[in-house]
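Support request from a user on the community tier.

User writes: "When I paste my C-alpha cells into the form, the page sometimes reloads and wipes my input. The last time it worked, I copied everything first. Here is what I submitted, just in case something in the input itself triggers the reload:"
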C-alpha cells in the first residue's frame, strides 16, 4: 500500500470526511459493493455528479490496483490507521494491529465463554478505527448466528478519544455488514467519543454491570508525550503511582474494573511493565489481586511495522489464581508452551522475572546485588551536545577550531577530552573515540563549580563569543523552562565529579560489547554508562564478570530487548544481578585467565547454574 499512502500524504485532503469519502468510495468501487439503503455509507460515496472528486477517485483506485492484488478489509483498516495525523498519533498512540494478533485475542477471549446470552458485551475502550471490534463481530456472528444489526446494537461497544476514529469504526462495521448482504437504512452502534481515563460507562446505563470481554491495543504514548490534562487524570489510577507511567499502564486497571465477575481482558501491549519502575505499581496491583493471567511475550520480535516496540499479549481473567502462566512466542503464535510461575516467587518492587525464572532467581539470590556493590553513572547531560561537544577540524598551540555554522576558535584550556561509551559496540579503545567538550567549570575538592561569566569572558574570550552566539539555542533546552545556575551551564549536574577508575560500556548493545577501563580522572563521558570505583583491580574483575556467559544469559532473559539481538544495560536492568562473593584468589583467577570457556565454567559453578 506504499503508493496509496504516498498519494494520501501528498494530496493533503483538508478534513477527515474528505479522506474517508475517498477511501470508502475506492473500497466500494473495487469490491463492487453498492449501498442501496444505507444512508450512512451513501453519504461517503463519490459519484459522477462531482467530476473533480470522481476523477480523484479513479486515480486513487488505479494506484491501489497497482499496489495490491486485493483491496480487502485489512488493507482498509491499515489505510484508516495511516491517515491519523502524526500529531494525534504521538498524543494518542494509535497503531495498526496485525490481523493474526487481533484474531488470536478475540478467539482466546471468546472461547472462555461457553454461553453467549443476549446480555453478552464485548468492548474495546481505546478502539481506534475498529480493527478489534471488526474481528469480534465476525467471531460473534459465527457463534450466535444473529444479524449484524443485532450484534452491533446489543453486543459490541467501543470508545476512543478521537471522533473521526469512532466514525471510521462505524464505517468499517457498516461495510462488514454490507459485504455479507446486510444493507439496511441505519445501524445502531454503542460507539462513543471520550477519554478512557475519565469515561464512566455507568453514566450510559445505570444497570451496567461490566463487559464480558475487554479487548484491544492500549495507546503507545511514553510519559514525556502525554498531555498535561491526561497526566492529571493518571493520578486517579492506582497503577500509575510509580515512576512516570506510560499511557498504556492505566488501561489494565480500567479494563479489569469494567469486567463482569466472569469477564476476561485481552490486550496486546508493551512488555516494559515486567521490569520498569513505572510498571511497579501495576505489578503490585496484579499481585495484590492475584488475577488469573496468561502472558505471551514476543521478546525482541517486532510485531508492528511502523514502531520499534517490544510487546506481549496479556489474557487476564477476573478470577483468582496463585500463578501466572508465561510463554515466549514468535509472530505466528504457534507452539506455545506455558510455564507456571507462582505469584509468591515474584517481586513486584524489583521486577518480574518471567522467562526461565528459576535461573534468574538463582542469579539474583546469589551474593550481593550489583547495585549495592558498584556505583554506576550515566554520562554528563548538556542537553545540547551539538553546542558543547565537538571534533576539532584543526588546532594550534592555544586553540581548537570548531565548525558550527562558521569556524570558531576555542581556547584549549576550557576544553576537556570526552567520549561516548555507546560507541564501544564497535570501537575498542578510548583514544579512537575521543573528542572535545567545552567545560565551563573548575574543580574544587573534586566538585565541579561553574565558572563565573565575567571570568570566562576575560580568560576565554573566544569560547565566550562562541557560547554567546549560541545562547538563543541554549535557551531552548527544557522547552525554555530550564532552571540553570547560569545560561551557559550544562543542563544537568550529573557525572561532573572526577573519577579515576572507570569501566565504560554502552547503554544498548549486542552481546558482548567492548568493556573498556580508563584511569584518566579528567576524561568526561556522555551517553553510555560507567562503573566508577577507587579500586582498579575490582574493575578488571568486573570487566571479566560482565563479559561472561552467565551475565549475558541474565541480560538476555531479563533486560529490555531491542532489534537485531541488542539489549539494554541500563542501571535498572543490571542492578539486581547477584555478584558472588569471590575471594581474592578467585578474582585473580578470573582476571588472569584468557580462556573464556574456562572462566564461564568456573563462574557458573559458583552460582550453581548449568548453561552448557
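"...and here is what came back when it finally went through:"
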Amino acid at each position: 500500500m506504499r503508493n496509496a499512502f504516498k498519494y494520501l500524504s501528498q494530496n493533503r485532503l483538508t478534513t477527515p470526511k474528505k479522506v474517508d469519502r475517498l477511501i470508502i468510495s475506492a473500497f466500494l468501487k473495487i469490491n463492487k459493493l453498492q449501498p442501496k439503503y444505507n444512508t450512512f455509507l451513501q453519504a461517503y460515496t463519490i459519484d459522477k455528479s462531482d467530476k473533480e472528486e470522481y476523477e480523484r477517485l479513479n486515480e486513487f483506485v488505479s494506484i491501489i490496483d497497482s499496489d495490491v492484488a486485493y483491496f480487502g478489509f485489512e488493507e482498509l483498516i491499515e489505510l484508516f490507521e495511516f491517515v491519523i495525523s502524526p500529531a494525534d498519533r504521538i498524543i494518542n498512540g494509535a497503531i495498526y494491529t496485525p490481523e493474526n494478533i487481533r484474531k488470536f485475542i478475540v478467539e482466546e477471549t471468546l472461547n472462555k465463554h461457553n454461553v453467549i446470552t443476549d446480555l453478552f458485551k464485548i468492548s474495546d475502550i481505546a478502539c481506534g478505527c475498529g480493527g478489534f471490534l471488526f474481528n469480534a463481530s465476525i467471531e460473534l456472528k459465527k457463534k450466535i448466528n444473529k444479524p449484524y444489526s443485532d450484534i452491533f446494537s446489543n453486543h459490541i461497544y467501543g470508545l476512543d478519544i478521537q471522533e473521526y476514529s469512532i466514525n471510521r469504526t462505524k464505517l468499517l462495521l457498516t461495510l462488514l455488514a454490507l459485504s455479507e448482504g446486510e444493507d439496511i437504512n441505519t445501524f445502531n452502534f454503542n460507539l462513543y467519543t471520550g477519554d478512557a481515563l475519565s469515561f464512566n460507562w455507568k453514566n450510559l446505563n445505570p444497570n451496567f454491570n461490566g463487559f464480558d470481554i475487554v479487548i484491544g491495543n492500549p495507546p503507545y504514548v511514553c510519559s514525556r508525550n502525554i498531555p498535561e490534562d491526561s497526566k492529571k487524570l493518571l493520578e486517579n489510577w492506582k497503577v500509575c503511582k510509580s515512576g512516570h507511567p506510560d499511557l498504556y499502564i492505566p488501561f489494565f486497571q480500567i479494563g479489569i474494573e469494567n469486567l463482569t465477575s466472569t469477564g476476561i481482558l485481552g490486550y496486546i501491549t508493551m512488555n516494559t511493565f515486567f521490569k520498569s519502575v513505572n510498571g511497579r505499581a501495576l505489578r503490585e496491583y496484579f499481585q495484590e489481586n492475584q488475577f488469573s493471567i496468561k502472558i505471551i511475550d514476543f521478546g525482541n520480535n517486532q510485531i508492528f511495522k511502523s514502531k520499534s516496540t517490544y510487546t506481549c499479549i496479556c489474557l487476564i481473567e477476573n478470577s483468582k489464581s496463585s500463578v501466572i502462566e508465561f510463554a515466549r512466542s514468535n509472530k505466528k503464535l504457534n507452539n506455545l508452551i506455558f510455564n507456571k510461575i507462582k505469584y509468591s516467587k515474584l517481586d513486584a518492587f524489583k521486577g518480574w522475572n518471567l522467562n526461565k525464572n528459576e535461573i534468574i532467581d538463582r542469579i539474583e539470590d546469589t551474593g550481593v546485588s550489583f547495585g549495592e556493590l558498584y556505583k554506576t553513572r550515566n554520562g554528563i547531560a548538556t542537553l545540547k551536545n551539538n553546542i558543547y561537544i565537538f571534533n576539532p577540524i584543526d588546532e594550534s598551540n592555544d586553540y581548537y577550531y570548531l565548525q558550527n555554522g562558521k569556524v570558531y576558535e576555542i581556547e584549549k584550556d576550557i576544553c576537556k577530552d570526552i567520549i561516548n561509551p555507546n560507541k564501544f559496540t564497535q570501537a575498542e579503545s578510548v583514544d579512537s573515540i575521543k573528542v572535545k567538550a567545552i567545560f565551563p567549570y573548575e574543580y574544587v575538592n573534586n566538585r565541579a563549580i561553574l565558572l563565573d561569566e565575567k571570568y570566562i569572558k576575560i580568560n576565554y574570550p573566544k569560547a565566550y563569543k562562541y557560547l554567546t552566539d549560541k545562547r538563543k539555542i541554549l535557551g531552548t533546552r527544557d522547552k525554555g523552562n530550564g532552571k540553570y545556575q547560569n545560561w551557559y551551564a550544562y543542563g544537568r549536574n550529573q557525572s561532573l565529579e572526577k573519577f579515576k577508575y572507570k569501566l565504560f560500556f554502552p547503554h544498548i548493545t549486542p552481546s558482548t560489547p567492548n568493556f573498556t577501563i580508563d584511569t584518566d580522572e579528567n576524561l568526561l563521558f556522555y551517553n553510555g554508562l560507567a562503573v566508577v570505583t577507587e579500586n582498579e583491580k575490582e574493575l578488571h574483575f568486573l570487566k571479566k564478570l560482565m563479559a561472561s556467559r552467565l551475565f549475558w544469559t541474565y541480560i538476555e532473559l531479563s533486560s529490555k530487548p531491542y532489534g537485531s539481538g541488542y539489549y539494554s544495560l541500563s542501571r535498572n536492568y543490571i542492578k539486581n544481578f547477584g555478584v558472588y562473593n569471590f575471594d581474592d584468589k578467585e578474582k585473580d583467577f578470573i582476571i588472569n585467565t584468557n580462556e573464556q570457556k574456562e572462566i564461564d565454567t568456573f563462574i557458573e559453578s559458583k552460582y550453581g547454574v548449568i548453561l552448557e
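Agent notes: The reload is a front-end session timeout and is unrelated to the input. The two ends are 46 Å apart (CA to CA). The chain is about 35% helix and 20% strand. Escalated to web team.
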